[in-house]
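Thread: quick sanity check before group meeting

JM: Hey all, I'm pulling together slides for Thursday and realized we never actually wrote out the predicted structure for the chain we discussed last week. Dropping the sequence here so it's in one place. If anyone has concerns about the input, flag it before I start.
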Amino acid sequence: MTVLRRHVLFLAGFDPKGASWYHRIYRTQAQAQARLTGAHYEVSPRRHGEAGNDCWTVQAGPPGSAAVVHTTIEHLRWDDLVRSQWARNSGAVLRASVAAYAAMLSAGTALWRVGRVSPRTLFSLGYPLVFWMLPLLLCIAVWLGWGAVAGTIALVMALVIASRLERRLNTSWLLQIFAFTQRWAAGRVAGLEDRLKVFGNRLTQLAADPQIDEVLVVGYSVGSMLAISAVADALARHEHADHPTTGRPQARLSLVTLGQCIPLLALLPRAKAFRESLQRVALAPNLTWVDISSPTDWGSFALVDPVSLCLDLTTAVNPAALLSPRFHMLFEPDTYERLRKDKRRVHLQYLMAGERAGGYDYFDLTAGALRLDERDWSALRPKA
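JM (edit): ok, ran it. Output follows.
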């Protein structure tokens, strides 16, 4: 066992839910995972910590051992920024979506590159647009063929059916994310850059603490983009320090991205600052970066290296591992078939227990005895 003390900085996705929701998920799912593996996890109540972030601790031990790993999980707060960007009605979603799709189309050959390396992701980018255009086109056709009354009736019926399907497909949630990344690239998310600097400063403080064996940054979903920016800020602070500490703080710094969608921002032409952050992280010599994203999760760029896709680099770069959590191995076949039909639920599975023990274990990853660079990832590597 090489980790006695770990500090996790967790960055959630584009979700208005706050730390209390993620703490509840962690506490209940850790116990479910413990029943599968025999490990034990004692999760503390949530408390308010530094910089407005909430924290909880995890006392964990491997199966058959009394050894204890002490982990602090700090939920880096940005749900208030999400709520400020969250469109409150369908009209606002529509207007923001138009700007988002215009930004995507302005990316030129980037969409072609996405389609070449990950066709399912290109489909995910396009299907919300197709989903809402089809009822409109149908109604126009009815209007032209049978008149205004028939067209209006067709429009109402189509919207009712589309709204019911929307509850399963979550197209409006995807459109909200697309709009947010477009505003981020354009520098129009008030408070975001300041918040990212706060995150970078917090990471710098933790990396300088000699009593912490591993500082692990976990970026989930859209939080993967914020994780890149925060880690890049911390790396820049160390490089520009007048009196850098002995040794490189990032030697104990690890980054894991789960269900990452980094290219969604990095490929936008106006996201130059973010691409610079991505390059800084990619070239950091002592940083361990592992990406775990499932091909079943069409909301992620699974098994796609965001560095090679988004940057023009010839140097060997991270992430050192592009892995699949192999969700199908964590469930009974019937359960998995139901799971994969619920896109939102699949996207959440990175943070949850399954029905079977398997190669992917979020709770061992965040509270277990090994650092990220010491783990055996062979069970999660995609087969050639």
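AS: nice. The longest strand covers residues 54-61. Residues 242-251 have pLDDT under 50 and may be disordered.
JM: adding both to the slides.
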